[in-house]
Write a structure and sequence with these properties.
98 residues, 14% strand, Arc Repressor Mutant, subunit A
Length: 98
């Protein structure tokens, strides 16, 4: 996969509504997959698929803690990316109402 393809893959992974919410939920730090299951009303299989897509895109990482799997953001740059987009959207919306 070349650079452009990987960049597109990261952006596509972040753009899905469920995955966007998962990323935001992990802003505060690592969470057990059981906490993700409590927060998001999806089947285990559906949630696992979203987590795998985010992990494959380099957005999340996982760690085994005892019998549990904990997910966290790969690094803080992910927050910066989303916050930049959110600021951009806020400006667009503010300009649209003027």
């Amino acid at each position: 996969m070349n650079f452009d393809d990987f960049t597109i893959n990261v952006l596509k992974a972040m753009a899905h509504p469920v995955r966007y919410k998962i990323i935001k939920f992990l802003y505060e730090g690592p969470k057990c997959v059981c906490k993700l299951n409590e927060e998001f009303d999806f089947s285990q299989a559906n949630l696992s698929q979203h987590l795998r897509i985010l992990k494959d895109a380099g957005i999340l990482k996982s760690e085994k803690v005892g019998l549990e799997t904990h997910y966290s953001l790969y690094n803080e740059d992910i927050k910066d990316i989303l916050q930049s987009v959110e600021k951009y959207v806020e400006k667009l919306l503010n300009n649209a109402t003027k």
